[in-house]
Design a protein that fits this description.
CATH class: Alpha Beta
Number of helices: 11
Bound molecules: flavin-adenine dinucleotide
Strand content: 5-15%
Order of helices and strands: EHEHEHEHEHEHEHHHEHH
CATH topology: TIM Barrel
Largest sheet: 8 strands, parallel, barrel
CATH architecture: Alpha-Beta Barrel
Amino acid sequence: MIPEISFEFFPPQNIEATFRLHEAVQSLAPLGPRFVSVTYGAGGTTRALTRDAAHALHRTTGLRVAAHLTCVNASREETLEIARDYAKAGVTDIVALRGDAPKGADGFTPHPEGFASSVELIKALKAEGSFHLRVGAYPEQHPDAANAQADIDFLKAKFDAGADEAITQFFFEADTFLRFRDKCAKAGIDGMITPGILPVENWTAARRFAGLCGAHISDELALGFDAASRDGREELFALAHATELCDDLQSEGVERFHFYTLNRPELTRDICVALGVTPSLSLQDVA
Ligand SMILES: Cc1cc2nc3c(=O)[nH]c(=O)nc-3n(C[C@H](O)[C@H](O)[C@H](O)COP(=O)(O)OP(=O)(O)OC[C@H]3O[C@@H](n4cnc5c(N)ncnc54)[C@H](O)[C@@H]3O)c2cc1C
């Protein structure tokens, strides 16, 4: 079966990056994504840029756009105002997150008048009545979780609070997701959980990201990427690895993938095509 796909982009910070995002969207939109999402900078640093990028994508592409929103650095009222603004502009999909502290700060500290957790944010957004809500999920346990079970219980609380779907942090082995899916089912979570896939454009950077968010890298994978980087075939190795990961997940019944594109479309596009997702529409047809 051909999987359903979705793509994450980040908002551009300058003109050159704006052109890059435009090119990425032009390249990936014809693959017919279920939705595309736009991130919200750590610490709420891209509030206006996220809004502008999400509004522009919604207006100009006809794609379903999900705007990320976090609780960091804003009062409840300010956060809800941002969400209402989205709804007014027709962007009714939100990826609702607690968020991380800004760079240099120590852990998440709620704003004095802000939402103290993602669960509070999800409840408040649900009460607005107009949003389809996606949330984050962590197959390898979030660093703030007391233990793996507490993390899954918290995900259940997010679904109970009104989340419609979850998207996972990236991981490198199919079993990591499959074990997590089993544990979620055992905990009574029956909402959709879509695996987040990181196409590895740059092994050094991916390794650093993985370290920050606790994604396990097996010795075999590290050796494979190291050798491929030495021989100048990192991209081919990345394509083979991500395609095999998705293929293994598909053979266990996974029907959807969310790609962290980092606004670079080539590898994501190649992986999708290798999975049988063929470009069928021009952006004009989509709009
Ligand atoms: C798909 C996806 C998209 C993301 N996009 C962005 C983005 O655009 N911008 C950005 O800044 N960050 C983003 N992040 C990162 C995210 O903000 C961080 O991982 C953040 O630390 C957790 O946010 P959350 O809503 O997933 O956390 P939560 O699920 O609310 O918390 C993480 C874990 O901490 C524990 N925990 C937290 N609060 C409590 C509590 N009150 N009681 C008990 N346990 C608790 C739970 O184990 C929980 O699973 C994204 C993550 C994912 C998976």
